[in-house]
Write a structure and sequence with these properties.
Blueprint lengths: L1 H21 L14 H21 L3 E2 L7 H15 L13 E5 L7 E3 L4 E5 H6 L3 H16 L2 H10 L1 H8 L4 H10 L7 H15 L8 H11 L16 H15 L10 H9 L2
Organism: Adhaeribacter rhizoryzae
Cofactor: Zn(2+)
Keywords: Hydrolase, Metal-binding, Metalloprotease, Protease, Signal, Zinc
Length: 274
């Protein structure tokens, strides 16, 4: 036991030394973060494993090896890959970018861990009208991971020492707290605005309407559901401001804003309704 503790401490101090060495270097986004990309990936793996275990225990994680839902995952992966292949995702090759569905029809939500693990609730999928809206939401979540917003917010909320301890396998209680808290993790307005902007940028390299995320807000406004806007898009109090900002960004990009007309999203919804 003593040897294990010593090894953990050596690993922790090794990570700390790496952090001190690398914190002066800029990442692909031009930011200086306390965490390296490798640490992002390691933390994301730990958090994603705990998220999987938590929702699996509740019977809510739709497993990829479940033959009933395999076609839904094929549609989901195709949409994600189109966004990732836009040529605009900085960490496309470094992050894992696996996406999983949580079966909860009452929850309109999605969230991202560090390192590119994306979770989408079935309630959000069933709520959206078309694939362009869904691609816009996924683009927003991909941006949170790609721009490392999740890591920055966790670092602010929990501190670098705790996150480093989790990376080396310590403090499992805090890991569980982080994993269960991701659904309500609140980003600052700058991070939300950047995620909205990059959702447009990512989709501009696809056949989707690049302002697809704006369609989500338009739907909530038309149905007078502003009070129920999901946590992952709720930082700005007025959805109208975000609709305008997203559409302005699309105009600046000069990208397509007509819906793609894809039917695969409807097929995915039908599978989840079975």
């Amino acid at each position: 036991m003593k040897k294990i503790i010593i090894n953990y401490r050596l690993a922790y101090f090794g990570l700390l030394l790496a952090f001190l060495t690398q914190s002066c270097a800029k990442d692909k986004n031009g930011d200086r973060l306390l965490f390296s990309i490798d640490q992002d990936i390691a933390l994301g793996e730990q958090v994603a494993h705990t998220v999987d275990s938590t929702y699996r225990a509740k019977g809510q994680l739709i497993e990829r090896n479940n033959s009933r839902y395999a076609p839904a995952y094929q549609h989901l992966d195709a949409i994600v890959n189109r966004v990732l292949s836009s040529g605009q995702v900085a960490y496309k090759d470094e992050f894992k970018w696996d996406t999983k569905i949580i079966k909860d029809d009452k929850t309109l939500n999605a969230f991202a861990t560090p390192g590119g693990h994306i979770y989408v609730f079935s309630g959000l999928i069933k709520y959206l009208d078309n694939e362009d809206q869904f691609a816009g939401v996924l683009g927003h979540e991909i941006a949170h991971a790609d721009k490392r917003h999740t890591t920055k917010q966790l670092q602010t909320q929990y501190g670098i020492n705790l996150l480093l301890a989790i990376v080396v396998g310590e403090n499992q209680g805090a890991l569980t707290q982080i994993a269960t808290g991701l659904t309500g993790l609140k980003f600052g307005r700058d991070a939300e605005r950047e995620a909205d902007d990059f959702s447009v940028v990512y989709l501009s390299g696809t056949n989707y309407a690049c302002n697809g995320a704006a369609g989500f807000f338009q739907k909530t406004q038309s149905e007078n559901q502003s009070a129920g806007v999901p946590e992952f898009l709720s930082t700005h109090p007025d959805p109208g401001n975000r609709i305008e900002a997203i559409n302005n960004k699309a105009q600046q990009q000069g990208c397509k804003t007509t819906p793609s007309g894809s039917t695969s999203f409807t097929q995915m919804k039908n599978i989840l309704n079975q």
